Amino acid sequence: MALNILILGDIVGRVGRRGVKEVIPRILEKHMVDFIIANGENAAGGNGLTPEIAQELFAAGINVLTMGNHTWDKKEIFTIINDEARIIRPANYPPGTPGQGYGIFRVNGKNVAVVNLMGRVFMAELDCPFRKMDEILLELQDVDYIIVDFHAEATSEKIALGWYLDGRVSLVFGTHTHVPTADERILPGGTAYITDVGMSGPLNSVIGVKTNLVLQKFLTQMPQRFESASGPYIVSGILVSLTEDGKAENITRIQYIEGE
Asked: Can the keyword Iron be found in this entry's annotation (predicted)?
């Protein structure tokens, strides 16, 4: 039997949280879904995650929250990051960093590994995500499926990791840019891939931020305090079906806009 995975793009602020809470039941009505993963690093006001918001998202049906460069933006995260196995921060932070870079979850009698990595191009100089993933694969000996969230800026770095892991993992999906890409495919080795799954957040915004603030920044080059936008939501993501042998047989982009 296939394992059906729902991936939701970066949840941005209150609007994004409302969107996923409303859209998940609609998706479950139409599709068989066994496991839900979402990127939660922007869920608290656009920056970071708090224990209360994490629990809100878990209650909405999300099984695992991956993170990224905004992992540490809310100090409250330190109260749960070591103990909450369902929150996965980038694995290529240096040794000794709080939290865990991957987790193994039992789904329909199968072991599903979820790994979070962060890119280095135009981002923080963390440990090499390619070599870190090699290390992790040596540790993941008794798993049936391996799913990787690559939180990165550069499309080239994301695509390169997809090819690097083709045939070695079940799915590589990109997060961080908040803009969905149209390159979803199954690579020759059986790995499902997409450069970015997009955003679950305010539709009328600049990647989740109030438009006027971003325009003022570009027009004046003066510092601006960014705030999450309000209004209708857009929820973007993918549905992926994985076969018994850990390979992908289908990957489909999804998008829900409030009011449509």
From this structure: yes
